[in-house]
Amino acid sequence: MQPRPPVVLERLRRKVLGPLFDRLGYDLVPAAPDWTHRPTSPREVARLLDAAADSLSADLAASGLTPDADIRALTETFWHLIPTAPVRQRRGGSGFNGALQLYVAMRVLKPRFVIESGVFRGLTTWIIRQACPEAAIFCHDPDLSGLQYRDARARYSREDWSRADWSRLDPAATVAFFDDHVSQARRVVEAHGRGITRLLFDDDVPAHRIHSHGGPAHPTIAMITSLDGDPEPIRWTRNGRPFEQPAGDELARRAASLIARSHPFDDLHRATGYSPARLTYVALQEGGP
User: Fold this and answer.
1) What does the DSSP assignment read for 19-83?
2) How far apart are CA 272 and CA 267, in angstroms?
């Protein structure tokens, strides 16, 4: 389990720093991952794992993925694995649900090569390594200074993944995972141009919920796959800032034509009680650009 913060620091947070930040309009909370809060009685643990496994099984089937392992067993393995994660994060990055979905998806996809665009503190790299211990992992992020986990066998780069030479990778044995707040339409087009057809996207939110997400990678897969010819742009505000996704975006239309199948996984909140996840599996049309 993750270690508890020192008693002196916790008292200082509650009695002094917490009230001060509250008056300034901010919340000061420990950087404790959500999975440090969990049921402990066997019956309730079993109920949580059963519900999560049922939801994941339905999502895999809807994605056209056929697992060769028992999803309930994989879910239980993850349940015991996640408390050992070397990354502490409360906000930003993946929580329990997102990490569970990524772990199970990677176990089912069984890639020999994984391209990860958007690394943050390194939790998802660690999850990918646990799911695919023999895979070659390529991590791309413009800022690697915040890493709490650095995989000893992964290759790291501050350059955008689209600038790298992937000619030595087998596209059929590759999965690309995007959690980088870059247009998901652009990532679809880039991946297809390199022959990579199996993609996972984090932060895929539909247009009517995009206001609730910080820095969304618009147009998201949900927006791309629901193009209906409406000439009105999609507009929203967040923290007083206006945002707009133009109507008739040619890149989005091109991306839509390349997607053979996409499925947003259930957010798992009803199953586990943890913060909702936003993972989507995308299969692209075969063929070159």
Assistant:
1) HHHHHTT--------GGGS---SHHHHHHHHHHHHHHHHHHHHHTT---SS-HHHHHHHHHHHGG
2) 10
pLDDT band at residue 271 using 50, 70 and 90 as cut-offs: very high
Q: Is residue 203 part of a domain?
A: yes
* Domain assignment present for 162: yes
Q: Residue 240 is part of a domain; what is its CATH number? A: 3.40.50.150
Domain count, the chain: 1
Q: DSSP assignment of 95-141, as one string?
A: -HHHHHHHHHHHHHH--SEEEEE--TTSHHHHHHHHH-TT-EEEEE-
In terms of pTM, does the model score above 0.85? yes
For 134-147, how does the pLDDT look when each residue is reduced to its tens digit (9 = 90+)?
Answer: 999 999 999 999 99
Q: What is the rounded radius of gyration, in angstroms, for the C-alpha atoms of the chain? A: 20
Q: CB-based contacts of 258: which residues, under 8 Å, 6+ apart? A: 188, 189, 192, 284, 285
Domain membership flag for residue 197: yes
24 belongs to a structural domain: no
